């Protein structure tokens, strides 16, 4: 059990709570995540779907099906990505730990890793501490 973590989008329209610790923490290097986030990699925490709930602005979320198995949900007002639904993980939800309030840690230290490393930008140098895979 963790303390309830709270987070939200840039404009404050969408707010959520996470009441269960993350089971996984991914730093994704795939080209799709880099484009959606406009950065060199995107970080996601994965928790049971029952552990995350929207407390404000859920009706302001828009969805984008970025691939057959992945639907991204983001704030219609500011464009901040909030969560991802992955078809082959129906009982889980992926959320962006970078938008948690107060830099709270979502857990999952033991499963933190870089994924889709084969797609990483060649000039990005990764530390040697975290595990790496070429898939999720």
Short description:
This protein has 136 residues and is mainly beta. Helix content is 5%, strand content 38%.
Can you walk through the features of this model?
The chain is built from 1 helix and 10 strands; from the N terminus they run βββαβββββββ. By secondary structure, it is mainly beta. It has a single domain (5-119), classed as Metal Binding Protein, Guanine Nucleotide Exchange Factor, Chain A, CATH 2.170.150.70. The strands form 2 sheets. It has a 7-stranded mixed sheet. A 3-stranded antiparallel sheet has the order 1-2-5, with no helix packed on it. The longest helix has 7 residues, at 31-37. It is globular, with a radius of gyration of 14 Å. 29% of the residues are buried. The model has no long low-confidence stretch (mean pLDDT 89).
Strand order of the largest sheet: 6-7-8-9-4-3-10
CATH-derived architecture: Beta Complex
CATH class: Mainly Beta
Large-scale geometry: globular
Largest sheet: 7 strands, mixed
> What's the count of strands?
10
Query: What is the helix tally?
Result: 1
N- to C-terminal distance: 25 Å
What is the mean predicted local confidence, pLDDT? 89
Query: CATH topology, which one?
Result: Metal Binding Protein, Guanine Nucleotide Exchange Factor, Chain A
Uncertain segments: none
| Rg over CA atoms | 14 Å
* SSE pattern: EEEHEEEEEEE
**How many independent structural domains?**
1
What level of helicity do the residues show? under 10%
| Structural class designation | mainly beta
Strand content: 35-45%
Topology:
Elements (H helix, E strand, L loop, with lengths): L4 E4 L6 E4 L5 E5 L2 H7 L4 E7 L3 E5 L4 E7 L2 E6 L5 E6 L5 E4 L16 E4 L21
Parallel strand pairs: 3-10
Antiparallel strand pairs: 1-2, 2-5, 3-4, 4-9, 6-7, 7-8, 8-9
């Amino acid at each position: 059990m963790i303390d309830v973590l709270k987070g939200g989008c840039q404009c404050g329209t969408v707010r959520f709570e996470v009441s269960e610790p993350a089971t996984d923490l991914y730093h994704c290097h795939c080209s799709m995540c880099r484009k959606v986030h406009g950065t060199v990699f995107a970080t996601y925490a994965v928790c049971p779907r029952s552990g995350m709930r929207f407390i404000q602005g859920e009706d302001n979320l828009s969805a984008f099906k970025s691939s057959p198995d992945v639907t991204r949900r983001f704030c219609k007002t500011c464009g901040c990505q909030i969560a991802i639904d992955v078809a082959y993980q129906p009982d889980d939800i992926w959320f962006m730990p970078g938008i948690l309030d107060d830099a709270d840690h979502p857990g999952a230290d033991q499963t933190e890793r870089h994924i889709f490393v084969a797609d990483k930008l060649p000039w990005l140098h990764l530390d040697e501490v975290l595990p790496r895979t070429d898939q999720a």
